[in-house]
Design a protein that fits this description.
The chain is α+β, with helices and mostly antiparallel strands. The protein is built from three helices and six strands. A hairpin with an 8-residue loop joins β5 and β6. About 20% of the residues are buried. It comes from Pseudidiomarina aquimaris.
Amino acid sequence: MAEANAFSWPIRVYYEDTDAGGIVYYANYLKFLERARTEWLRSLGIEQDTWLAHRLGFVVRQVTMDLIRPARFNDELRVTVVVERLKRASVVFTQQVLDQNGTVLCQAQVKAACVNLGEAGDAVRAVPMPTEIIEVLKRAS
């Protein structure tokens, strides 16, 4: 079951999310997780396009995902986001995909790093998150 303080985002499984058998294709769970993290940030007032204009972004560095039960075409799901660890240049999330009954279908841990995107051809490198983002994430944790 999801944690009580978790952010939750609804997802409907579309036909395009499934394989020939009508089961969600494993890689699409990554998209569901990404959408929930993006909407969580937006709910906190962190608009990623604003930071992208300053050449700062978040990139996924590591994912551990356990696919426990299948989701199927037309299912209504809920994707949760909880901050597990917050560091100066990275954040680790615990996320779950649940069905309407609260059964966990997918459990994941995602590490995202703050990076300076530079200009075309520049190396992408990890940098400390802006203080205002860290403060918002601390309050939300």
